[in-house]
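Request: Could I get any protein with tokenized structure?
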Amino acid sequence: MDSNRLAPTQQRLEHLDVLRGFALLGILLVNFEWFTRPLQAIVLGVDPGLAGLDAASDWLIRAVAEGKFYPLFSMLFGAGFALMLERAEARQAPFWGLYLRRLLVLLVFGAIHMLLVWAGDILLIYALCGFMMVLLFRKTPTGRLWKWAVAFIVLPVVLMWMGALAIWGTQGDPALHESIMAGFEADAGALQERVAVAAEVHAAGSWVENVGQRLSDARFTLANFVFWVPPILGYFLIGRWLIATGRLVRPDQHRLFFRRWRSRGLIVGLPLAVLGASLLHGANWSIPTPSVAVGVSATTVGALFLSLAYLSMVTLASDRLRFLAPAGRMALTNYLLQSLFWTWTFYGHGLGLWGQLPRATHIVVVLAFFAAQVVLSIWWMRHFRYGPAEWLWRSLIYLRRQPMRAA
């Protein structure tokens, strides 16, 4: 059958590959700090040693990038699920068993990446959220998807406010209030000590010692799953909604929708993101004060609006950004390559450049590295059907070796 006659959901949607490529850049920009700073310091706010241009660069990244690109990638993951389901139903082909195997393989990839390469892995959490989406929202009507999404995205904010108000309410009993705050401060001090130990391991430890540290980091990440999993699941559902309503399938027919979200996303999202970055600058997120709760609220809502603005902007400009599509087609390979290269660069079992790259240089280095990834991806996709990790993923899913060379 002529591919030009296929329904849009049966063709590869290039603008989604462009969006994945763009999201890869943002993910690297945000992750770069955590390739050269202990992951458990993520709740401690800005590095207190930063000043001048380093501090300004850090604040800019936090305002416009941090927390804005994992939502974009999550929406694309949910969109991919919806497209696979539509295509399977159109062909009357089996889907659920295949998709669950897809999630299982992704879970294994994520566990290997988290323990052997870098503890900031998102693949394992994506797989867990994927299982939850299949379990809880397998047949949810389209009109309810975005409503559930909003509920999951704001859940951590609600929990933060519950904690902040509960602590604030103890001020009538000074002894109880001081005892609670002293407990939080003790926990914060213990966290600072763990961060210092992690920094020593990453800076000078062997690969085996780093695996041990990553086990500790993984426990920290999974222990705080309520702040990670619900929002990611929410963004999955937004991605499904965008496909189910046709907006991301035929964007040319929904340009007004994307123009509106480009505008409202920037007008609402950018000020809130700036406010959140300012309030949380140097704050310890693990201590739920009213100021932190306001900062988390502004950051969460700002991220929702700003990530939708980024999605809309790139979708509208996708024809001019086609050079990003090859990087997006091999997004898994590029994501893993970012971790492999930069942990080897910074960690003691590699080049050992831990702490030697000023924060002000991160943006330039990220842009240069990503440009190299784009060029390499363009060359690779001219010769091969899939990226190396994508090829392995598909081969494991289908339990047979997939063709690699381009037709």
Observations:
- Residues 3-398 form one domain.
